[in-house]
Amino acid sequence: MANIISEVFSRDKLNNEQRIQVSTQENVNTLNEKVRLENITFSYDNKTFIYKDFDWKVELGDAWAILGPSGCGKTTILYLLAGVFFPNQGRILIDGIQIDKPRMRTGLILQDYGLLPWSTVRQNVELGIRLRKMYGLDGRKPEEYSHIVDSWLTNLGIDHVQDHFPGQVSIGQRQRVAIARSLVLDPDLLLMDEPFSSLDAPTRESLQNLTTKLWIEQNLTMIIVTHAIEEAVLLGKKILLLGHPPNTEALVIDNPMANTKGFRSDPEYHNLCRYLRQRMDENSDD
Question: Which one, 72, 197, 201, 209, has the greatest CB density within 10 A?
Answer without folding.
Answer: 72
